[in-house]
Specification:
- The chain is 9% helix and 41% strand.
- By secondary structure, the chain is mostly beta strands.
- It has one domain.
- The strands form 4 sheets. A 4-stranded antiparallel sheet has the order 8-9-7-12, with no helix packed on it. Strands 2-1-3 form a 3-stranded antiparallel sheet, covered by helices on one side.
- Strand 5 (61-63) and strand 6 (69-71) form a beta hairpin.
- The longest helix is centred in the first third of the chain and has 11 residues, at 20-30.
- It starts with 5 loop residues before the first strand and ends with a strand.
């Protein structure tokens, strides 16, 4: 997968775009290197240029203020089967399992956004 072109982060209720130097540092973190400087209290979300194929998806992850890179996920509800592993029962024959979030290109916003999360449920971890 290609490295992000830039990252976005929220500062004082405004979404900002990283400059070239910060983008390079964040890409090094994504590749497994430790941060060279403090990242403040910001979470950074990766962005790429507009794809040639607008049906393309990318895994959703972020870089936390401590410099760790984490996958974004949600709980998905489904009908329970005995073969399911690592699910949590939520009642009425339904269970929830962790599913990774995906990013899709938004022509309206001209950025990568979270894809719809079908059957999303909120349960305590």
């Amino acid at each position: 997968m290609s490295l992000p072109t830039y990252y976005v982060y929220e500062d004082s209720e405004t979404w900002r775009k990283t400059n070239k130097d910060l983008t390079e540092q964040l890409n090094k973190i994504y590749c497994g290197f430790l941060p060279k400087q403090s990242l403040g209290n910001y979470c950074f979300y990766p962005q790429w240029d507009k794809p040639n194929n607008t049906n393309e998806t990318k895994p959703a992850w972020r870089i936390l203020p401590d410099g760790s890179c984490v996958q974004r996920w949600y709980w998905c509800a489904r009908d329970h089967k005995n073969k399911h592993a690592d699910c949590k029962m939520i009642g009425n024959g339904r269970c929830a399992t962790k599913v990774t979030c995906r990013l899709v290109w938004s022509d309206k916003n001209k950025v990568w956004v979270l894809a719809d999360m079908p059957d999303k449920t909120n349960i305590n971890d």
